[in-house]
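Changelog-adjacent note: as of this version, every example in the card shows the full chain rather than a window. The one below runs 164 residues end to end.
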Amino acid sequence: MKLRFLFFILVLSINSCAYKPLYKKSHVFHPNQVNIIIKSKENYGNNVSMMKAYLNQKLNKKEAKQSSLRLIVSVNRNISNLGINKDLNSYARSLQISIKYSFKDKKGELTSGKLKNSASFYYTNNNYANLQSLEDASNKLIKSLSYDLADLILAGSFERKVRP
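Full-length structure tokens:
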């Protein structure tokens, strides 16, 4: 009886080791590093360096090796007045950041596209508050766009095999 019980416990423990995860822990180009190139027409302060840092955090691992995979991103920023006057001293502005991206390997382009996002903030007579509002809205938009772009690249199903 003890032998059957031990055999039963052994069979249960062996069968439970056959678990397979639903999701992969790595992406298609896992052992290879993606070279990220950010372009912008004007100097936008921290936007370029922040976007590069966010994309590196999501796409590249520490143990990754050099490859010819490239992600080229073009950043464009537009500020416009909304024309909403709540009182004589303040009105709202809209900040729109759009990016164009292209993901390439040795053979050529794998995917490309456009992403854009916008935010609004109040504009007042206080210059410091205006700069802080603009910087805060810009940082949030860059973070959102970077994560969206990284998710698109990581979840992408490419028409051909990736050649790093």
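Structural remarks: The mean pLDDT is 82.
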